[in-house]
UniProtKB/TrEMBL annotation:
The keyword Heme does not apply. This is Carboxypeptidase. PANTHER family: RETINOID-INDUCIBLE SERINE CARBOXYPEPTIDASE, SERINE PROTEASE FAMILY S10 SERINE CARBOXYPEPTIDASE. InterPro entries: AB_hydrolase_fold, Peptidase_S10. It comes from Phyllobacterium endophyticum. Keywords: Carboxypeptidase, Glycoprotein, Hydrolase, Protease, Signal. One of its GO terms (molecular function) is serine-type carboxypeptidase activity. The lineage of its organism: Bacteria, Pseudomonadati, Pseudomonadota, Alphaproteobacteria, Hyphomicrobiales. The keyword Signal applies. Residues 1-51 are annotated as: Disordered. One of its GO terms (biological process) is proteolysis. Pfam families: Peptidase_S10.
Amino acid sequence: MTLLALPAPAQEIPHQLGSDSGVPAAKPPLGSPFINRDKASSFQPQDPPPSGILRLLPADSVTDHILKTKPQDLAYTATAGTLSIFGQNGEVSARIFYTAYVVNGAPANRPLTFVFNGGPGAASAYLHLGLVGPRILDFGPNGQGGTVPALVDNPKSWLRFTDLVLIDPVGTGWSRAVNDNVATNFYAVGPDAESIAKTIALYINHTDRMASPKFLLGESYGGFRAAKVASALKADQGILVSGIIMLSPLIEGQLLFGERRYPLGAALQLPSLAAAELERKDNFSLKEMQEAEKFAMTDYLVTLAGAEPTGADATSFYARVARMTGIPMDVVSRTRGFLDDSYIKQSQAAELKVVSPYDASFAVADPYPEIDSDQSNDPILEGFTRAYGAAFASYARNELGFRTELTYTLLADDVNRRWNWNRRGQSNGTRSQASATGDIRDLLSVIPSFRLLVAQGYSDALTPYGISQYVINHLPSSLSAGRVDLKLYRGGHMFYTRPTSRQELTIDAEVFVTGQSGMLRGE
């Protein structure tokens, strides 16, 4: 199927940006009081009457809240609403749902961070209720209580050091195109980045935030998206970002998709599998990880790249890989040390368990132990983290005053399936061709103050940290020295579900955004 190019945006007008919701104030949650504003915003609705599915999107809602933090409480305003994207024909092509949190009385140059997830096809609820927002989802003592999650105050919210705008791309959350044919235009690398860049520009212009240092935070494909959005902001909107924080990112598709069948890809994956085994044995240590990284890029890489080992050399090599990963030696030997996805079924095969690519240390009972290939739903993506969707829909309705009967789409499989990996969206590309390295180099080159922070979990086998490490190590030092950093944390792809790792990342993010830390470990 040939994809049409996204209609070039005309002079868009925000959809009731900051207007009153018109609904009674809900009962404030304990510890997070709010007042639904009863005065009209200075931004008046100017969009034409919505049609089709867009009729289910209500007017924007503005509410006032207080976040209890140390050393002082933060009074802030939340806006839950939509921004309109117009085509050259002057018609609305889509409405983008966003949630903005702005600290009251702060200076005009307070940092402003725009946040989105990845997928493609994931809504921002993961980072919203999992990391940065003033409210956070508590999964219980074992961190896996998806059936009865509790929404609690987040005293470590990033709102302490930056205002926040969380954005759901078209087809996710409550962001929708006017119809399915138009939606297809957004499901491609370039048009997606351009629509998010336009949304950011609209927000900045209509809230007079041009003086704020502007940052992007993206997870997984969202990290890749952040680099593309920063490039689109610069090229199309004349807006330069101060920095990007990538969480568990896709950066180079050629190093990720299918490359584990080749020596370099396998070597970049191995440390994450070693970390997972150390976690399962409750024996994690930085010394062990340093040894795993060294082995991966020396003896392991050289052996895989050479002729098949034999005799005692083969026995010694396969035994070491087996001990390091927990995968039985006969499996390691049969695959000649190329582990690829064998770890999912084999890391804890003796216990009839499967592990998750999202965190290879996380294991559950195998629903199909009699089958050699993995047939299970992912225990993290399809398990407790699914609760983010329903929790956000309830939070938006009952605390933010955004009331709609439209389903909140946490993960849009249809968007992912239809995604066009071609940069311009004109013909189907492949995900192995996806690359953000060029964008990173260009941003570092033309924006002297631009900085990049990559944050990853040790046991993430979906986007192994070894790939990010490799990409960063191969940036010209004239660009990256003192401006590009890789931070590693205990946990997997969504390592922020671990409270300790979440706090460590938040401290690092505050230093990255503000240049100083106002939070103490153990606070």
